[in-house]
Write the structure tokens for this entry.
Amino acid sequence: MLGRNHYGGNCTTMEQRNWHTSYDKGVPTAIDYKELTIPQVFWQTVKNFPNSPALVFLNCKLTYAEFGAEVEKCAAGFAELGVKLGTRVAIQLPNVPQAAISYIAALQLGAEVVMTNPLYTFRELEHQWRDSGCEVAVTMDFIWDDFVRDRRSELAPKKWVVASIPGYLRFPLNFLAPLKLKKQNPPRWAKVAPESDMILFKDMIKQASGPAPRPDFDWNQVAALQYTGGTTGPSKGAMLTHKNLCSNIQQIDGWFTGVQYGKEVLMTALPLFHVFGMSICMGWGMASGACMVLLPNPRDLPSVVKAIAKHKVTLFPGVPALFNGLNNFPGIEKIDVSSIKYCFSGSAPLPPDVMHKFESMTGSKIVEGFGMSETSPVTHCNPLNGVRKAGSVGIPVADTDARIVDIETGTQDVPMGEEGELIVKGPQVMKGYWGRPDETANSIRDGWMHTGDLAIVDEEGYYQIVGRKKDMINCSGFKVFPDEVDGVLVAHDAILEAATIGIPDDEYGETVKSFIVLNPGKSLSAEEVQAYCRENLAKYKVPRLVEFLDELPKSSVLKVLRRELRDMEMAKSKD
């Protein structure tokens, strides 16, 4: 079992840093890593907690022993399809049991998984699967029926496995669910039949025979090609090795000293195809023997609230939009959500008001952290029991170094308190970008990962993300960081959400525009928003333009997509 008792004490591989004094008692500054692959971690948990619940999905509940049996059959089925060491397997599933089963099974065979968003268009699938060279794809029945079946010759995979949301449900939901799912818009179930190059997931499991192969490979083997969002061009596959992923699991495990192995219930609403869900919910979840409560749609707040109350969720990885949504959920004050102990927030800045309200409502603690696809993902986190600084992503975790360097060259450290680009170094940093040596060389220099995020650091080593290099607004030579403006805006009691961008301006080069979603029943004018901002921001940071929207465009993990707002503005300028 991975655990704090297995670290062998603190190592001395990295010099002491000022932030080490802020570590909680018992948290190591360096780790004596157990060099295990992800499947080895999984089977260790199966051995230690065979009868503990592992996966919950509606009326389906699998213990770790049952989870392991399904993984073994799935791995045998994959092997019969030709999956072996180095094969790339695409997994395009929402948060259903088949996603977790397929992930562990493919990795057990030494394959490299390509976690894929089920909402992708055909164009996005074509790019990702051709770029990665996927040979086998696991997808959903409604995706297969909608556009994959008739165009699969244009995609890279040659063998297909088709899963269904009702696949692991028990009676009577296994009969009722297809009727309900088929009526959704768009449908989330389709009746499909096997073909020469396609097998149904349930049939593959039933037909699998004999023990699955267990090829010998070490933790330097690539485990996942985790594709970035493609905000600065075509998405790139970050090569994450078993070492990267397993090191990060051990770093996270060492950080959260109050976790009880085999007893926690972990909300798994974050998509497993996203690095946050894949590594924190699934990777660390199964390593700690937690029961993972699977929810396919994090936007479905009624289901999230119901799951917390029903299953007594204790661990809650989430994003600010999710915590904010629960804060404002009608009738939440009448629902018992007090089982939640620890929450982990990432993906976007967490407004202090959102944090305090959620903690007051649940009695839990939220620790904000930082990570990215290229770092498996966690590099920073606020201490669980020590000083948590609102607005800060915390301090680097064990064996992780961090610096703030100048934006222009990326080589010179900037003075404390000044903004610059955050760069990080540690065992969780990716091997590189798949098939893109130039991109790799530009991002990883002398072992340092250049994140593209702008940050400042204080005298105690706490880091604050102030924006992205590409999002920074240059207004007459003055730097405006959208996150700062958004933080001021959402502190207003009438504003639910805000997103700020820079738009071209003949006089200033760029000018500030904010998009705002109001709380239900509240009203504000653009002039009132600007007057409020003038009280809290320097004049050049005050949005000159304000637009009210019903909702902001968001990614699958509820991260605001500023690029879509910029695209919307560009389209307006052309009209």
